[in-house]
Design brief:
Elements lengths: L5 E5 L10 H8 L4 E7 L2 H6 L4 H21 L6 E3 L3 H11 L4 E3 L6 H15 L4 E3 L10 H6 L9 H8 L29 H4 L14 E3 L9 E3 L17 H4 L14 H13 L1 H6 L19 H6 L4 H17 L11 H18 L42 H11 L6 H13 L4 H11 L8 H11 L5 H11 L16 H6 L4 H6 L19 H6 L2 E3 L12 E3 L6 H18 L6 H5 L6
Parallel strand pairs: 1-2, 1-4, 2-3, 4-5, 8-9
Antiparallel strand pairs: 6-7
Helix pairs in contact: 4-5, 7-14, 14-19, 18-19
The protein binds flavin-adenine dinucleotide (FAD).
Flavin-adenine dinucleotide (FAD) binds next to helix 12, helix 14, helix 17 and helix 19.
Length: 595
C-alpha cells in the first residue's frame, strides 16, 4: 500500500478520465487515499442561468463519471457535495485530513476569484494545492494573452500567432497543443466509509439553501421551498443528484443530446471513423437546417463539461489529416476546418482571460463598442455569466421589449427564426449559422435589442453554454467587437430558404405550419386565406393564441423586415461614427443618454 499523500481531487470543467492533465498529476503523486468530489457551487446553481436541459446534461455527465471511476476501482465513485466550495472545501480538508488538493485551472473570471479564495484558505491550513494545468482549451488562455502583448486575442490570426510561440512542454513542437496524457488504468483507495461520514458533524448538517429556485421557471422566477439536509445529500451517501430531487419537470428536459464521457467518445469515434467527413469539413458549408443528424459534430457541450478532451479531438483529427495527406487527398483549410474551429474557441478564452469580469458585458469593457440599442442590457437583474460591475443604463422601449419577448418565445411571425428559437428552447442546441441568424435578427439586423439580452437567453437554454464562447460570439454577431461589417445582414427569409427550400426545419419545430406549401413556408402570411384554412393554420394575432386542434394559429411577421433593416443600418452607422466603447466614462456613468 502507498504511503503517499491523501489527495482530494475536485472535478469541475473536466468530467472525464481520459486525457485529464490535472487528474494525471494527482495520480502521479501516488496517493494513499484518493477522494474525487464535485461541489454544488451556488454561483452556477442559483445565480447563473441554467435551464432544465443543461441540468440534465450535467447530471448525466456526473453519473457517467461516477461509473467510470467505479470501473477503475469498485470502491470509488464521484462524491457530490452540496455546499459552496469556498466554505466546504476547507472543512472537508480538515475533516478528511487531506494533504494535497488538486483541480484543473479555470480562467473564467468568477472561477478565478473562487479558486483563489479556496487556495488561500487551504494553503493557510498547511495543505498544498496543485492547479497549474489547463485542460479545457488547446492552449492556456493566460499564455495566449502573454504572447499577444498582454492584450485580449481579437482575431484568428492573432490567436494563431500567439499560440505559435507557446511551448507545449512535453517535447512537442512550439505552437502545437500538448499531447494527450494516458487514461488511468486504476485508482487508489478511497477513504473508509467511517472516515468519510459527515452525518455526526454539526458543521456539515445545515440546510442549503432555505429557498432554492424553481428550476422549471425561467430564472428570476419564483423560488420554491426546498431543503437539502446535510452536505452529503438526504441519504448521506454523496450521490449524484437526480432531476426529480431538484424538482425539475422531466418534460422540460427533453433534449435528445446526452451527457457523459462515454457518449462523447462514441460521438467522436463516429466522426473520426468517417475520414471523408472529418477531412473535408468546412463550417460555412455545413447546413444550419439539418437535424437528425445535424451537420456539425455537436461536441460543444462535451467540450464545455470536459466530457471530451479538446486535445483528443484535435490530435485525432490531425491523424485523419495525416492519413489523407499520405493518400494524396486534400484536407479542408483553416479556419473553416475542425482545428480552425477549435482555435476560434481558444480566441474567445484568450479575450476573456485578458478582460476578466468586464468581458461579459458592455459596461466597463474596452473592446465592446457602445451601441444605444432600443432595449439595453439590464444589469439590475441577474447578470450574464460573470458580471461584477453594477448599475444600469436601460432604455426600456416597450416596442423593443415586445420584440425581445416574441423572439425569445419563437413567435416573431418569421418561421425560420421561430423554428430555430424553439429548437433552442426544447433541445438546448442550434447550428452555428442558426445562431448567426437569430443573433443578428435580435440585434443589428431587426429588433435593435442589446446583445446582452440575447446572450442571457442563450445562457439559460444552451446545453453547450460557455461564457467565453457565448459572449464572444454575441459580440461578433452584433458587431460590438471582433467583427464590424454591419451592412452584412441575415435575411430571416432568404437565408433559411437557401439552405432548406422545402422548409423541413420549420415543419419540425413550428408544426402549426407543417402542411403549408413550400411556396409559403417562409412567409405564410402571404398564403391565400382559403389555403391557410385547408392547411389547418390561420395566420393571425401575435402568437399568444393557441387556436384549436383543427385550426392552429400562427402570427403575421411582427415587423416589416426591410424597413427594420434600413433603420438598423442607419442607427449602426451613427453608433460607429460616435466611436464609443464600454469603458468610456459616458457609458460608465449613464451620461451617454444626453449625447
Ligand atoms: P462544430 O462545428 O462541430 O465545431 C467543433 C467544435 O469547435 C465545437 O464543438 C466547439 O467547441 C468549437 N467551435 C466551433 N465554432 C465555434 C465558435 N464560433 N466559437 C467557439 N467555439 C467554436 N459555442 C459554445 O461552445 N458555447 C456557447 O455558449 C456558444 N454560444 C454561441 C452564441 C452565438 C450567438 C453564436 C453565433 C455561436 C455560439 N457558439 C457557442 C459557437 C458555435 O455556434 C458552437 O460552438 C457550435 O455551433 C457547436 O456545435 P458543434 O459542436 O456541432 O460545432
Amino acid at each position: 500500500t502507498s504511503t503517499g499523500p491523501r489527495v482530494l481531487y475536485w472535478f469541475r470543467t473536466d468530467l472525464r478520465i481520459h486525457d485529464s492533465p490535472a487528474l494525471h498529476h494527482a495520480l502521479g503523486l501516488n496517493p494513499s487515499v484518493f477522494i474525487p468530489i464535485w461541489t454544488w457551487d451556488p454561483h452556477y446553481v442559483y445565480r447563473a442561468r441554467v435551464g432544465p436541459n443543461r441540468w440534465k446534461f450535467l447530471l448525466e455527465s456526473q453519473q457517467c463519471l461516477s461509473e467510470r471511476l467505479t470501473e477503475l476501482n469498485p470502491r470509488q465513485k464521484l462524491n457530490v457535495v452540496r455546499e459552496d466550495p469556498t466554505s466546504v472545501i476547507p472543512k472537508l480538508v480538515r475533516k478528511w485530513k487531506v494533504d494535497v488538493l488538486v483541480f484543473e485551472k479555470d480562467t473564467d473570471a468568477y472561477a478565478r476569484s473562487r479558486d483563489e479564495e479556496v487556495r488561500k484558505a487551504v494553503e493557510g491550513m498547511g495543505v498544498s494545492v496543485y492547479s497549474a494545468v489547463i485542460g479545457r482549451t488547446l492552449f492556456d488562455p493566460d499564455e495566449l494573452v502573454k504572447h499577444n502583448g498582454g492584450q485580449p486575442t481579437m482575431s484568428f490570426n492573432q490567436t494563431l500567432k500567439a499560440s505559435s510561440q507557446i511551448d507545449p512542454g512535453d517535447g512537442g513542437k512550439k505552437g502545437e497543443p500538448r499531447r494527450c496524457v494516458p487514461t488511468p488504468t486504476g485508482l487508489p483507495e478511497p477513504l473508509s466509509a467511517e472516515e468519510m461520514d459527515l452525518s455526526g458533524d454539526s458543521e456539515f448538517r445545515h440546510e442549503v439553501p432555505e429557498k432554492a429556485p424553481d428550476f422549471n421557471q425561467e430564472h428570476r422566477g419564483e423560488t420554491k421551498e426546498r431543503h437539502y439536509e446535510g452536505v452529503a445529500g438526504p441519504n448521506n451517501d454523496f450521490a449524484v443528484v437526480t432531476l426529480e430531487e431538484m424538482g425539475i419537470d422531466s418534460k422540460l428536459a427533453m433534449s435528445p443530446h446526452k451527457g457523459g464521457e462515454r457518449e462523447a467518445l462514441r460521438l467522436l469515434k463516429t466522426y473520426i471513423d468517417n475520414e471523408e467527413y472529418t477531412g473535408t469539413f468546412e463550417k460555412p458549408k455545413s447546413s444550419p437546417a439539418d437535424f437528425e443528424p445535424q451537420s456539425t459534430t455537436l461536441l460543444s457541450p462535451h467540450h464545455h463539461f470536459g466530457t471530451l478532451s479538446i486535445r483528443k479531438f484535435w490530435w485525432d483529427v490531425q491523424e485523419v489529416f495525416e492519413k489523407r495527406k499520405k493518400a494524396g487527398k486534400i484536407n479542408a483549410p483553416p479556419p473553416a476546418n475542425f482545428p480552425g474551429q477549435l482555435l476560434f474557441r481558444d480566441m474567445y478564452f484568450g479575450a476573456q482571460a485578458a478582460l476578466g469580469y468586464a468581458f461579459a458585458q458592455t459596461r466597463g469593457n474596452k473592446i465592446a463598442r457602445f451601441i444605444p440599442w432600443d432595449l439595453q442590457s439590464n444589469h439590475s437583474d441577474t447578470p450574464v455569466g460573470e458580471h461584477l460591475l453594477d448599475g444600469t443604463y436601460n432604455v426600456n422601449d416597450e416596442q423593443a421589449e415586445e420584440y425581445f419577448r416574441r423572439w425569445k418565445e419563437g413567435r416573431t411571425g418569421f418561421p425560420w427564426i421561430d423554428a430555430l428559437m424553439r429548437q433552442l428552447k426544447y433541445e438546448g442546441w442550434m447550428h452555428h449559422l442558426g445562431r448567426h441568424s437569430v443573433a443578428c435578427f435580435l440585434t443589428r439586423g431587426g429588433c435593435y435589442v442589446s446583445w446582452e439580452r440575447g446572450a442571457e437567453v442563450f445562457e439559460e437554454w444552451l446545453v453547450d453554454h460557455e461564457t467565453a464562447c457565448n459572449v464572444g460570439n454575441w459580440m461578433w454577431l452584433s458587431c460590438v467587437a471582433f467583427f464590424s461589417q454591419f451592412s452584412r445582414m441575415y435575411s430571416p427569409i432568404a437565408f433559411g430558404k437557401k439552405w432548406d427550400p422545402e422548409g423541413d426545419l420549420i415543419r419540425k419545430y413550428v408544426p402549426e405550419l407543417k402542411h403549408f406549401d413550400k411556396k409559403y413556408i417562409y412567409e405564410p402570411h402571404k398564403a391565400p386565406i382559403a389555403d391557410q384554412k385547408s392547411w389547418g393554420c390561420q395566420i393571425t394575432g401575435d402568437g399568444t393564441e393557441t387556436g384549436t386542434a383543427e385550426m392552429a394559429k400562427y402570427p403575421k411577421p411582427m415587423f416589416d423586415f426591410n424597413e427594420k433593416r434600413q433603420f438598423c443600418l442607419e442607427k449602426m452607422k451613427e453608433a460607429y461614427d460616435a466611436h464609443m466603447y464600454g469603458d468610456d466614462k459616458r457609458v460608465m456613468s449613464g451620461e451617454w443618454k444626453k449625447i
